[in-house]
Structure formats: C-alpha cells, structure tokens
Amino acid sequence: MGSSDFVILTLFLVLVSNSWAATSQSVQEKFYFCIALNSELSIPFSTAFYAPDNASFSSILQSSAQNLRYLMPSVPKPQLIFTPLTENHVQAAVQCSKEAGTQLRIRSGGHDYEGLSYMSELEKPFIIVDLSKLRSVHVDIQDNSAWVQAGATVGELYYRISQKSKTHGFPAGLCTSLGIGGHITGGAYGSMMRKYGLGADNVVDARIVDASGRILDRESMGEDLFWAIRGGGGASFGIILAWKVRLVPVPAIVTVFTVPKSLEQGATKILHRWQQVVDKLDEDLFIRVIILNADGAQKGEKTVQTLSQALFLGRADRLLQIMEGSFPELGLTQKDCTEMSWIQSVMYIGGYPGNTPPEVLLQGKSLFKDYFKAKSDFIKEPIPETGLEGLWKRLLEEESPLMIWTPYGGMMSKISESEIPFPHRKGVIFKIQYLSRWDDDKPESVTKHMEWMRRLYNYMAPYASMFPREAYVNYRDLDLGVNKNGTSFIEASAWGTRYFKDNFNRLVRIKTKFDPDNFFRHEQSIPTLPLMNRKRGKRLIH
Ligand SMILES: Cc1cc2nc3c(=O)[nH]c(=O)nc-3n(C[C@H](O)[C@H](O)[C@H](O)COP(=O)(O)OP(=O)(O)OC[C@H]3O[C@@H](n4cnc5c(N)ncnc54)[C@H](O)[C@@H]3O)c2cc1C
Ligand SMILES: *[C@@H]1O[C@H](CO)[C@@H](O)[C@H](O)[C@H]1NC(C)=O
Ligand SMILES: *[C@@H]1O[C@H](CO)[C@@H](O)[C@H](O)[C@H]1NC(C)=O
User: Which phi and psi (to 5°) does residue 303 adopt?
Assistant: First the structure.
C-alpha cells in the first residue's frame, strides 16, 4: 500500500466512522478494509468504491443497466459497487467478498435480460463488481487476434479492429453496447454467424479469476474449464478478465439492405418462403427479420411490419444474383442495396443513423433503454401460414412488441453440439426472440406485459423445438426456473437442458470440480453435484 493510499485510507476511516457507524462493521467496511490491507495492490484503489450514500452511486448503478425493470424501487440494491482498476483488484474482490461474507454480482456490459449482473433476489447482502474500467483492446493484425478486457463493448472491439485493417472483423453481437465479458460467456451471435459461427467459437484464450482468487489462462485452467466458459453462461465459473479472440477476414466492401413489408404487402407469404430458404442461402448472406407493429394504411388501423435486414459479405451485383436464384420473392432491387465498409455495416445494423462517425462506438453507450421482458425459441420446421396469422393477431394486441428472427445454417450447422456448451446447431432453421417493451415503472405494467409474453410463448409451443424446448442462455429467462437455496442439479436441469442440452451434465461436473463451494452463484448459475454424487462426477471428469 503506497503512502498516498494510507492517507486516503485514514481519511476514509474518519468518513466511515461517521456515516457507517450504525452497524459495528458493515459489509462495505469489511470489504473495503480487506482490499485496503491487501498489500500487493500497488495501484490506488480508493476511487473504486461507491457506497449507497455516495452521490454517484445511482448513476453508476444505472450506467450500463439495460433493463429498467430491474432498477425499479422494489428491486434489491447492492451494498456497494466496486469498480476494479487492475486485475489484482478483481482477485482481491473474490477473496474479500468471502471475508466480508457477501455475494458478488459481476457486471461487464449490463445487458443481462434479467438484471443478474446488478441485482439479486437471492442474496443479501451483495456487492457489484463492475468491470467497466477494465476495457483495453489490443489488436494484433499479424497474429490475427485481439486481447479484449471484459469491460470493453463489442463496438469498441469492432472499432479498434477497423482502425488497424479494413479486411478483418469479429463475428459477435449486433448491438454495439454489449459487454464482451458477459456476451461471450453465452455464445455471442451476430451477422457473420452463418460464415464464421459465434463469438465463443472464435475464442482462443482467456484470463479468468477462479473461486480461490487465482488468475488462470487457457493453459493453467485446462481444457475442461476453457470449454465451460465459452458458452456455459456468465458468472458460474469465475470472473473473465479478458478474452483472446481470433479475427476473421471480411471483404473491404460489403452490402446491406433493409426491405420492409407489411401484411398488406404480402409479408406472410414472403416470411413463409423465408423460412424455407434462409438456412440454405450462401454463407456470405445473413438475412434477419425484425417484426413489429406499425400504423396501417387507414387512419387508426394497425398492421404488422416485417423488416428483412441483411449483411452480405460481398458486392451488390453478386448479392442480386444470389437473391434472384434463391429468394426472388423478396423482390430485392439494386436500389435497396448499399455498399460500405464492414465497420459501417456494424453501425448500420446496430441502428445508428447514417453518417454517424464510428468513433461514437468508443463511448460504449447503448442507443436505447426500456422496461422489457423477452424469451427465445429455436425453430426446426417452417411455421405454416395459419400459425403466422395467429401470431399476428397476438402481436396486434400488444402495445410495443418486437420479434427478431435470426437465420441459422452455414457454419452454425457444421460445428458439433458439444464443441462448446452452446448446443443449438444442426437442424435449427432460425431463432426467434420475442420482446415486449414499455416505458413506465408501474407495477401493473410489469404484470400486464409479462402475462402477454407468457401467453404468446404458450401459443408458439407447437411450432418450437421440443424435448427440450431450447432457449438461448444469453436471452436469460427466469420463467424457465431459478435456483433456490439448495436447488439440486436435477431441478436445475429443467432450464439447464433448454440452454445447453446434453452439455448441461458436463457443465455441472466442471462446476463441481472448479467451484465445489458454489461461490459463483446466481438465480441461474450452473449448480454443483450433491456431495454424495461427487465421487462419480470426479471419475467422469478425469
Ligand atoms: C439490447 C440487447 C441486444 C442484444 N443483442 C445480442 C446479439 O446481437 N447477439 C447476442 O448473442 N446476444 C445479444 N444480446 C444478449 C447478450 O449477449 C447478453 O445479454 C449478454 O450476457 C450481455 O453481456 P454483458 O456483459 O453486456 O452483460 P452483463 O449483464 O454485464 O452480464 C451478463 C451475465 O454474464 C455475467 N458476467 C458479466 N461479466 C462477466 C465476466 N467478466 N465474467 C464472468 N461473468 C460475467 C453477469 O454476471 C451476468 O450473469 C443482447 C442483449 C440486449 C439487451
Ligand atoms: C464517491 O465515490 C468516488 C469513488 O470512490 C469518490 O472518488 C468520491 O469522492 C465519492 N464522493 C463522495 C461525495 O463521497
Ligand atoms: C442456504 O443454505 C445454506 C446451507 O445449505 C445455509 O447455510 C444458508 O444459511 C442458506 N441461506 C439462506 C438465505 O437461506
């Protein structure tokens, strides 16, 4: 501990003895002093603590929290937010949370659908370890790779790559404010998935802090743990400090389009056709469909609008040929197509207005925030037109529904289900994400929209994958089940097999080996095997 830190610590002691005197030694104090007394921390740490009485506490808590539903007054708040400045601080956070008797929530980009990176219904007290100050990105074009710290957003990574090369990219999420730390733990898909697979398929190394506070890389953690962290879900195995990712080639010029079709313009028939062709298209072509309510032709009328939005890894003339041969029903024309650089396509698909300079990505800010509930489905047989019509009826009942249909096939079906924990591969035509969004904090609104979403999900059951009805872990859905204190792995397998299919069992064994005391836990963390089953579990691992 440096002498300036000592002065700050003394000052802090005076401060806390005033403001926190009520409890003899609060969790905040225990945690703070534990970190302060960890003499290996050479870098000043005293500016990294936000207690609830600090003027910046709320703004730091809200900073990256994407689902406003989990900031409502009734939702439990942390005792402290710790924003580590170095890797050592993250190690200390693990050790000191044990000493202080508190649970950790780990936050990178704050996009967890159920707020699990910044709130906890299960644990009291809890502290947030917010990695937003660990966000360096080192791109090495010669090595075709980049080391990215957990707190960086995918937009920052894309931007840094584009500054070094116009013909390299990385195949992760479409929304540029996603934190790379949490995002890759669940898979990380984006507009190049049909060509290159997921972000997690393109990770070559990682640095993590494990449950005993050690820093491990791929070599020291071993292939089991390295397998588990690439898709087994966030915050079950350790704290990711950084990912080393493999860059992929992109053409200097790519092409994008967005073609709108309302029901009156034949959207149903075109979408029916889309389902038959979309997973078989050229791998350079990714056409997703965004579906939402819109005003109809007549005043006061509502319709359903579909937006077919594409990235093509090539020029417009070749794209038009491919579309003419494989999907003429969409009626794509030259004037629908825009050629641009890959980084501009990232901005386009990320929803930025045209001509926004890509430097805006360095701010790592999300474009919008709202109250929302979401769910996901994987579709293996085209949904018949009658099924689509029932779906439109339900969408039109809701104020601000949104669906995003994401095509699979290509590289996604060439990677085996057990290569990494993310299992939704061969046989999937597309994934549906269902969303309902609203903008007021009335508890009745929460109930109303959650109920609509659950009815919609029931309606879709016959069209979705079955046994299990698969779901994307990065679209976390607590309706699928939550860990209670002492939840057994059998109960947890109800949601675990939906997210991971058979990989769930291997995840449980790896969890049991590397975090036997279940230090890293949350509402949907991978459970450990009960003590009596562990012998067998161990044997299966070795
Ligand atoms: C608007 C929006 C758009 C999205 N678009 C896409 C998309 O295009 N493609 C896609 O695949 N997904 C998408 N997602 C889902 C997204 O991948 C997940 O929400 C992902 O978990 C976000 O990571 P994060 O770091 O931003 O979130 P966080 O909320 O910080 O973390 C998510 C989970 O991971 C844990 N975690 C966070 N950091 C770490 C760490 N360093 N080490 C270990 N565990 C950690 C958290 O505790 C939490 O459980 C989107 C989500 C939103 C809200
Ligand atoms: C709030 O916390 C920050 C970070 O630790 C610190 O720099 C600042 O002085 C604190 N402000 C107040 C009013 O305590
Ligand atoms: C959870 O269970 C453990 C033992 O299984 C117990 O020590 C602990 O107090 C329980 N916590 C809560 C919040 O019930």
Answer: -140, 175
Phi first, then psi: give them for residue 278, nearest 5 degrees: -65, -30
SS3 299: coil
- pLDDT tens-digit series, residues 276-294: 999 999 999 999 999 999 9
239-246 sheet: strands from edge to edge: 137-140, 145-149, 239-246, 203-209, 215-216
- Cα separation, 169 vs 157, in Å, equals 9
Count CA within 13 A, CB hemisphere, residue 373: 17
pLDDT given at position 1: 41
Domains, in order of start, for the chain: 3-130 (3.30.43.10), 137-249 (3.30.465.10), 254-340+370-463 (3.40.462.20), 481-540 (no CATH)
54 CA distance to ligand 2 middle (Å): 6
The token pair at 351 is 């929803």
Tokens encoding 199: 């972000």
Least distant ligand from the CA of 80:
2
CA 456 from chain centre, in angstroms, equals: 23
pLDDT tens, position by position, 324-339? 999 999 999 999 999 9
The pLDDT-based confidence of 534 (bands split at 50, 70, 90) is confident
Residue 44 CA: which ligand is closest?
2
Residue nearest atom 6 in ligand 3 by C-alpha distance: 485
Q: Which residue has the tokens 């474009």?
A: 367
Q: Which amino acid is at 320?
A: L
C-alpha 498 – ligand 3 centre gap (Å): 27
Query: On the CB side of 386, how many CA atoms lie within 13 Å of its CA?
Result: 1
Residue 278 vs residues 35, 382, 428, 501, 511: alpha-carbon distances, Å: 53, 11, 11, 24, 37
